[in-house]
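Bench log, entry 3. Co-assembly request; chain sequences pasted below exactly as received.
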Amino acid sequence: MDPVFIAIQLLNGLQYGLLLFLIASGLTLIFGIMGIINLAHGAMYMIGAYLAYDLTLRTGSFWLALLLAVPVAVVLGLLIERLFLGTLYRRDHLYQVLLTFGLILVLNEAQRIIWGSDVLSVPVPASLNGNIALTGNLQYPVYRLFVAAICLLVAGGIYWIIRHTRLGIVIRAGAVNRDMVEGLGIDVRTLFTLIFSIGVGLAAFAGMLSAPMTSLYPGMGDNILITCFVIVVIGGIGSIKGAFLGSLLIGQAATFGPVLLPALASVIIYLIMAAVLIIKPRGLFA
Amino acid sequence: MLHSYPKRVPIIMLALTVLLVFYPLWGPILIGDGSDFFLEKLTLMLILGLFAMSLDLLVGVIGLVSLGHALFFGLAGYTLALASPSYNAASLWWMLPLVMLVSAVSALVIGALVLRTRGIFFIMTTLAFGQMLYYLVSDASFTGGSDGLFIMFKPTLTIGDQTLIDLENPLQFFYFVMGMTLLTYLFLHWLIRSYFGQVLDGIHDNEHRMQALGYATYGYKLAAFVISGVLAGVAGMLAAMQYGFANPAQLGWHLSGEVLMMVILGGMGTLFGPLLGAFAYELLHYAFEHLTVYWQLLMGLTIILIVLVLPKGLAGLILDPPRLGLPRIGVGGLFRTRPAASNKTRLGLAGPQKHEEG
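Structure output for the full assembly:
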């Protein structure tokens, strides 16, 4: 195989993996600390992408749209947590599954009502439109590099918060024993609201970033949700490190799969998951 | 888990059954021209009721929340479509065992893997395996890709040259489906009360204790998973016969979510509840569809409302009717059943929760 082609595929896989991490990290934190399985996570990714589309159209600037869309998504997450999830913390996962499944239907339909069923796209912002020559004969889109850099920054930020701040200590403690953290006098309720808002905010942010790279269509969050579930299962629930490495692995598998094993392209990530389950049923880093 | 119900339960179920049996008498009078169409809808509701009962064995009896149950439902449809000869009908005498065998083998393989996980992992892995098959059949050419496959002829049910039941006839098919659903109900009713079912109930309450008592719980769960998968397969085959095609949507995770909703709407662990739930869910579905093209919005809000207000489902209302008239107690009646359920989770949380969840 052509080395330039391999290099481009590697970069694509890396960029896709980093984007997946933004979504999977929220998913794994929301479960690890809050004990909530959030099926509506993918729908928030979709909402993010459509918000980017809508606000770019209104303001004329993708950057301004990003700036406005992030708080909107975070507030939406806050509302969902306050309105619906409050009653679910002490109940069986079953009810969380159903309630967030209901939320998917509501969010998907809201998307159709507001933005319709047509496939939409967002133009790449002019300042980042174009290719960059990495080596003599290797061209790569600037915007994709930019997205990869932003995702790395966010990943670094998450790592810093979790490792080096007081909030991070509480988050890590909460992932180990929620009741003990509550017993120590920490306001778990506020912590949950914060984590949920940030988690779904990250998913929506990933949707905004990917809007200029992909097409927007109804139900676009469903596929990404299940891919992120696979990542969380591989990495181990509640493990940020696992989510990071799992994202990179799945990113590469999803880019190289169709080239190397075209017959198995659509199922390769599930085969990886099955293999991990056989070796370590609780994920690689749990 | 309840093992004996108050008398009103069999009375209500019997009344509804009689109502269904005599549909050809009252249907045309009450519904008029649409009665043939509604007969097909009733057939579908019975099939979904069978499907929901099969899931109840996992969700209600053992407490295993599967979000990939449509896998077996859809796989059976594809089995029927692929195994049927192109230009004439297959015989149900070998088609039904074939579908059951395919469902059993796939449930055995998938169950062996997913049952290594617990709690939230189980939900995610069942979902992922369901989607894996979804993408496989959506992409492969021999399954007709995203269009699916047509089933030109329904299988025949004959002895010698004598047709026992003409499945192409909508009314006879309706009664056939009703018979299969009734048979499944009686089988599961017996199974849950058998020794095997008692062990499953014990696993639901406390799996570690059952293990300490010497039960190989994994084997029991796997057996139940296979039984549940086979019954879901039977439902899927009937549905594919009814639709006349097998389609990727029949094994997608939205259907898995919907059937889970039917179980909860009806009342999990009660068997008759999920059967009612399938009817209630589909009736709501049609009502909303008639009301607006954005029916999913109403469906989603209804689901959220039921989770928040009616976690025990319709069966909860029948078994423990809210005493209306006295508002305070009336509302309390709706919620009164909750402390028992939430108490169990609370105990689980206080214990070594991380070991349970992974």
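The beta strands of chain A are 131-135, 138-141. The mean pLDDT of chain A is 89.
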